[in-house]
Amino acid sequence: MTSNQPDAIVKKDDHEEGGQMTFFEHLVELRKRLINSLIAVGIGAFVGVSVAKYVIDFVTRPMLKALTLAHLESKLVYTHPAGVFNLMITLGIYIGLVLASPVVLYQIWLFVAPALYKHERSAVTGFLFSTVFLFLAGIAFGYYVTLPYLLKLLVSFQNVSLPGIVPMITVNEYFDLTLMVLLGLGLVFELPVLVFFLTLFGIVTPQFLWKNVRYAVAIIAVVAAIITPTPDAMTMLIFMAPMLGLYFVGMGVSWTVVRSKNKKLAAESAAAGN
């Protein structure tokens, strides 16, 4: 009896269940997590507004460089007296959301973790990390690769086609375009996470993804055509390339999930047989 006791303890620890809470306790806990998240967003927004002018300088560099390469005056304008003020407030809120996102995700984690098994907690932790990493990777790809090419194409096309007309680009319109491109690519880079969950719930398999790769390419082409702000094929291909790469990464993720599930089922069957 004594020799089997540690094994029993380990087994119980591996399948540890979360604590049970009443409905009222859940509401109190949810309220606490929401308040902490709002406080984090408020502090982040305050910091964001404080550094907004430096972020504006950083984000406008691709546009100013594109104007310089086109031999145009490298400046952005605003057409409303409160244009720059509104931009700094809006940008500060966006920065605040980004800065507060780790705290918000941590609050979500604290709310759901007590109801999860230990192995489920590890999976959720990996999911949160992967989601943030892929989203930031998409934004970085958009800023350093997609946006400079797109702006250069737009400005040079206008300069060559209509030499008598010069652009007067407002800073607010430029930030709307930048937000659309960066946010769109950030969401696109979440494709492997989507495939992970679809595979986890048995909706797709790696064989299904490989068999339907031609249809996936067609769908990706349609999506790229929709989110591409210009009608030229080269820009659409720049949007398509990471999406296709992420599709095959998702295929690898799907294969890993299926392999892990099969190993777990085999281990459970062997344990049941013994």
Record the SSE blueprint:
Blueprint: H1 5-14, H2 23-59, H3 61-69, H4 83-112, H5 118-161, H6 171-188, H7 191-200, H8 206-211, H9 213-227, H10 233-273
Helix pairs in contact: 2-4, 3-5, 5-6, 7-10, 9-10
Describe the structure in your own words.
- The protein is an all-alpha fold and 274 residues long.
- It has two domains: 20-189, no CATH class; 190-274, no CATH class.
- The protein is built from ten helices and no strands.
- The chain has helices spanning 5-14, 23-59, 61-69, 83-112, 118-161, 171-188, 191-200, 206-211, 213-227, 233-273.
- The longest helix has 44 residues, at 118-161.
- It is flat and about 85 Å long.
- The two termini are 19 Å apart.
- 17% of the residues are buried.
- The model is unreliable at 1-18 (pLDDT under 50).
N/C terminus separation? 19 Å
Extract low-pLDDT stretches.
Answer: 1-18
- Number of H/I helices: 10
Helical amount: over 70%
Tell me the Rg in angstroms.
25 Å
Helix and strand run: HHHHHHHHHH
Number of strands: 0
Biggest pleated sheet: none
Let me know the average pLDDT. 81
Which structural class fits the helix and strand makeup? mainly alpha
Q: What percent strand? A: under 5%
Q: What is the total number of structural domains?
A: 2
Quaternary class: single chain
